[in-house]
Design a protein that fits this description.
heterodimer; A: 291 residues; alpha/beta; TIM Barrel; eight-stranded parallel beta sheet; 12 helices; 42% helix; 12% strand; B: 352 residues; Rossmann fold; Dihydrodipicolinate Reductase, domain 2; 2 domains; nine-stranded mixed beta sheet; six-stranded parallel beta sheet; 11 helices; 25% strand
């Protein structure tokens, strides 16, 4: 059966806060991480989130998330947040993207390096040494952690996006899009520097399916500054999915969602750490997202 | 040998570089060392309109290739000498391992460049001594970059005086993170270098120099120190109890806490919030409510980079946060902590 290209969702649920430091208090992170320690608890939360209106889950390819998804008899729509860089990478002197953890993995495991090797063989020589050449095999391998039927696309993590934006390198964006199209995947780019990113995209004349970045009424994480970000969102012509909606816990999720939609965000991506009752709160966001 | 003091570091910043005299020319910056920190600095410079990334110095060809592959067009060379023969710059940011840092700093100073050294407080004695001597010999701006000194809640606690020797008589401090369980942990790095040095920088910035330490440490998971407990005696008589551990599960990011009490009341400051219950200061400030200290996010460099550029423009607070003399002092405190641990906790004076 031929897969159809999907519309960019309006309501996503981010589950990165289980594995990565986020802008929330440590107590809150520990509480959420403890709540979803058991894969069954996480599985229930995820399936209820989708039932409550989340159109896709933005999920890093971690063992914990895969275990939770494996608990479920049905596939949930996934946007794989890749490549997955872990906090302990800071023990290295070298940049984390210089290495491919697939080198050390079981060659027979799901998502093993074998998957990544396929794409590497087809890369043009000029691309093989580029950032795209480095990360595409890893992206393919890490995305293979999820069941193919559940993968709706990829969200390229900020570590790659922001490096490309800083280096003024449009080719990686173009390469990712070329890589994803035959697979009928959406391609979004996570960034910690939304204003800079949108300005670059305008200059480059490139438009990925969406960009995921901080938008909230307090301006937390809106780089280089809130005014520039809002101006860029209004002008860029790229769909922006707003994250950091609670401004580090300073405002309610509803206020963050309503504000970001009013200020030009195409959709929103609250994180697990932003909510106490995931299905209930997601359901309450639906009218704000539709407005 | 003249040791640069905090005051002299600020003075060096008060010698304005040509570009800081109201002229729009950005600071032309070369980054030496294209490891993780070096790339962070490269990105922070690239995002900043007051700085211009003009080159890289990196002896390793794989790291030069990586930066080029990422798209950076700035010219790179394996040595600073080769780079300077072809190009001009104002500032060198040194992000190399300690073994290469001293040579680079000496060469940069001899070439008349301003110098920002990343990670100076964690470097070993020989490198620190050479860098200190080189930095003391120039009148160009010099600095030591430590992201922790730009963390918003701790910066506010220092700025308001809530965290100061005048208000607090008893101080406890802790730093926790989960790292030792990583397969990347290996001999050559330990909790003192990875974690304690940053906490000591915050304590020095808040309460002044530490004069003596007694310390114990534990090697729990390998041939390196995983936890340490330090009693630090400051030059002003204040005593602080300090703990650092990189074996705390479920702490992907570093958590630092400094709490103190005195006649006026109590203060707790962490990465999350500053809580003040003092006669003259009350309230709670969360990290997210503080204004951003940079024009970009990502990695360790944006706050330091912003501080550097503000210091060049004459901002004394930024210059103070970048004090090279503080980083040198803290490197020596870490050295004394190691000696005390090796001597079963007996007190060691900090070399001045």
């Amino acid at each position: 059966m031929k897969r159809q290209a999907l519309d960019v969702p309006r309501l996503l649920l981010g589950v990165s806060s289980l594995a990565l430091p986020v802008r929330a208090t440590r107590d809150r992170q520990l509480e959420v991480s403890a709540r979803f320690k058991e894969s069954e608890s996480l599985a229930v939360a995820l399936v209820k989130a989708v039932a409550a209106g989340a159109e896709a889950l933005v999920a890093p390819p971690t063992h914990e998330i895969r275990e939770a998804l494996d608990e479920l008899p049905k596939d949930l729509p996934i946007l794989a947040r890749v490549p997955h860089l872990v906090p302990t990478d800071d023990l290295r002197y070298e940049p984390a993207l210089l290495f491919d953890p697939g080198d050390d993995e079981d060659p027979n495991g799901r998502g093993s390096k074998r998957a990544g090797a396929v794409v590497k063989d087809f890369l043009p020589v000029g691309v093989a040494g580029s950032l795209a050449g480095r990360v595409l095999p890893r992206i393919e391998r890490e995305t293979a952690v999820f069941k193919p039927a559940s993968v709706r696309g990829v969200v390229i993590s900020a570590a790659v996006t922001d490096l490309a934006v800083a280096a003024n390198q449009p080719r990686i964006i173009e390469r990712m899009m070329k890589f994803a199209r035959p697979r009928h995947w959406m391609v979004g780019f996570e960034t910690r520097n939304l204003g800079h990113m949108l300005a670059r995209l305008t200059t480059w004349g490139t438009a990925p399916d969406f960009v995921l970045g901080a938008m909230n009424p307090r301006g937390v994480g809106m780089m280089p500054d809130p005014d520039t970000v809002l101006e860029a969102v209004g002008r860029a012509g790229v769909k922006v999915i707003a994250s950091e909606l609670r401004a580090g816990g300073m405002i309610s999720l509803e206020d963050g969602v309503a504000w970001s939609r009013r200020h030009g965000a195409w959709g929103v991506c609250p994180e697990l750490v932003d909510m106490d009752d995931v299905p209930k709160e997601l359901k309450s966001l639906a009218p704000l997202v539709a407005a | 040998m003249t040791r640069p003091t905090a005051a002299s570091a600020a003075t060096q910043f008060s010698q304005p570089a040509p570009h800081a005299l109201g002229a729009p020319a950005p600071d032309r910056i070369v980054v030496a060392g294209l490891g993780r920190a070096g790339l962070d600095y490269a990105c922070a410079v690239a995002f900043h309109s007051a700085a211009d990334l003009v080159g890289f110095v990196e002896p390793r060809s794989d790291l030069r290739r990586f930066a080029r592959g990422a798209g950076f067009q700035a010219h790179s060379e394996p040595t600073l000498g080769r780079w300077l023969r072809k190009h001009e710059a104002d500032t060198l940011i040194v992000c190399t391992p300690a073994a290469e840092a001293a040579d680079l700093v000496e060469e940069a100073v001899a070439s008349g460049l301003a110098v920002l050294v990343h990670g100076l407080a964690t470097m070993p004695r020989e490198a620190v001594d050479r860098i200190e001597k080189a930095l003391a010999s120039t009148r160009k701006p010099v600095a030591a970059g430590s992201p922790v000194l730009f963390q918003p809640t701790f910066a506010r606690a220092r700025r308001t005086g809530a965290l100061s020797a005048e208000r607090l008589q008893q101080v406890r401090a802790s730093a926790s993170v989960s790292r030792v369980f990583s397969p990347l942990t290996e001999p050559g790095c330990d909790v003192l270098e990875f974690l304690l040095a940053d906490l000591l920088l915050l304590l020095d910035a808040s309460f002044g120099p530490i004069g003596a330490v007694s310390a114990t440490g534990q090697k729990l998971y390998g041939d390196w120190l995983d936890e340490c407990q330090v009693e630090a005696r400051f030059a002003n008589g204040l005593v602080a109890k300090i703990e650092a551990s990189w074996s705390v599960p479920d702490y992907p990011g570093t958590a630092m806490v400094i709490e103190g009490s005195g006649p006026e009341g109590r203060v707790i400051v962490s990465d999350d919030a500053l809580e003040m219950d003092l006669a003259s200061m009350q309230g709670r400030v969360v990290a997210a409510s503080e204004p951003p200290g940079a024009v970009s996010e990502g990695g360790e460099a944006p706050g330091v980079m912003e501080g550097w550029l503000k210091a060049l423009a004459g901002d004394e607070r930024s210059a103070e946060a970048l004090s090279a003399s503080r980083a040198v002092r803290v490197a020596r405190v870490v050295e004394s902590v190691r000696q005390s641990i090796a001597a079963d906790g007996s007190e060691r004076l900090v070399r001045s």
